[in-house]
Amino acid sequence: MQPENRSGDQKRSFIEDARRGQIVAATIETIAEIGYAKASFVQIARRAGISPGLITYHFAKREELMKQVMLTVHNSMDAALTARTEGSESYRIALRGLIEGFVHYCAEHPTELIAISQIAAAARDAEAARTWSEEQNANALTELEEMFREGQECDEFREFAPRVMAVSVMAAMEATPAELMARPGTDVAAYAKELADLFDFAVRRA
Question: What is the CATH number of the domain that holds 80?
């Protein structure tokens, strides 16, 4: 009987995960369409085709749901960027993969980026999500700074202040979503290459 019980638990867990994913996806779409302030459980439930009570079953508070949205989008982005940079033969190639990968992710996931930007700017019900996002950004900045430092130690990068360069790269990347949304006709591949070229020239040895 024990194996059957474990199998049932696993099945329920899979169903619950799928339902939570459905709710998160509906939340992203709702925020992107009508804005964070109007994205109530009722509106989200209507888009997901479920009852509001089912949302509260999985997410007791709105704040918990918003944090899960942040986590889901960041995990998706991390997976996309890892695919671009994993196994890179040099720090320069890794940097280019990171920048180009981010630009392409922004172009391919505008709805997700609108949602998390609105959550990050929310005045209420999103403190946990904002705090978590700020921690993730701080970690990303530290990792980028460390990559620049390691590249210098391997003589791939010229001498410069790793922290300043990391802040500059992050700022340029963070400006990308707004630029692509404001100019929908942008050649994404050309934009990604130009931005990567800019920082490649900035860090490499002459």
Answer: 1.10.357.10
